[in-house]
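in:
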């Protein structure tokens, strides 16, 4: 961590100095948007944190909701889409502990492993680990999701209370957009206006009245549970309660196709073998 970062979060501002770049410590208490901007820029854009600040939007400080552009390169995003497309294993997406198909989620899904897409998978895992403060081994493998015209995912949370009983406790989410949606002078897009590429498919967070438009290489990061590592009384084996403020929806795709990838993070190593660098 640089001295500049220590100064920005030092005791002079009334905030306890953070003596190491550790997301588990950082996210354990409410932070200001300025503190989050400083932390995320150093965690993700190590070589140019000042320039990285221009690529970060803190939509909410508490609970944290952060958009980070250029998280992965275009070529890495293309490699993920190519690996998913060539896997031959895309299946209807499922929901809940029953892992059943539902009209609330009408996309297709495939799980990618490191041997199918090593460099993007490991880069994603590495940066998600630095951002969250959780080891890469706590992450699920990469879930790649494809949406065609009209497909969507209605309002939901990524963690459900009943997940505690099934070893699926999802503390945090990194949602990566693998392609970019069109816009027309900022106007609302409609089904009856034909487009060449992706339109629609925004991620909507009703708690914050925020819609995030898909942009290749961009992630949205948030915590799914009321309990976070580093918070008072937190224990990696504790019961985790879903934070309903994290509710979100994948709005219907109006034209083209939408590709995203999810990294979900758990309190403990879940044996997936996910590695960073």
């Amino acid at each position: 961590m640089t001295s500049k970062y220590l100064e920005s979060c030092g005791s002079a501002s009334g905030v306890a100095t953070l003596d190491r770049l550790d997301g588990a410590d950082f996210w354990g208490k409410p932070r200001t948007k300025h503190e989050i901007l400083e932390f995320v820029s150093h965690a993700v854009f190590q070589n140019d944190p000042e320039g990285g600040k221009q690529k970060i939007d803190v939509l909410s400080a508490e609970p944290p909701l952060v958009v980070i552009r250029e998280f992965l390169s275009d070529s890495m995003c293309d490699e993920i889409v190519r690996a998913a497309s060539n896997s031959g294993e895309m299946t209807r997406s499922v929901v809940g502990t029953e892992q059943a198909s539902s009209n609330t989620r009408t996309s297709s899904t495939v799980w990618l492993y490191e041997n199918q897409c090593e460099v993007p998978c490991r880069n994603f895992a590495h940066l998600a680990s630095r951002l969250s403060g959780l080891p890469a081994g706590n992450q699920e493998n990469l879930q790649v999701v494809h949406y065609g015209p009209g497909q969507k995912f209605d309002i939901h949370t990524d963690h459900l209370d009943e997940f505690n009983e099934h070893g699926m406790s999802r503390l945090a989410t990194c949602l990566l957009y693998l392609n970019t949606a069109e816009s027309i002078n900022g106007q609302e897009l409609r089904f009856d206006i034909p487009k060449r590429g992706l339109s629609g498919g925004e991620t909507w967070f009703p708690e914050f009245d925020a819609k995030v438009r898909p942009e290749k290489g961009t992630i949205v990061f948030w915590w799914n549970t009321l309990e976070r590592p580093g918070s008072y009384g937190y224990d990696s084996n504790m019961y985790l309660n879903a934070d309903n403020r994290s509710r979100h929806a994948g709005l219907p795709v109006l034209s083209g196709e939408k590709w995203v990838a999810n990294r979900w993070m758990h309190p403990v190593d879940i044996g997936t073998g996910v590695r960073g660098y």
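note: Residues 55-265 form a domain with the Jelly Rolls fold (CATH 2.60.120.620).
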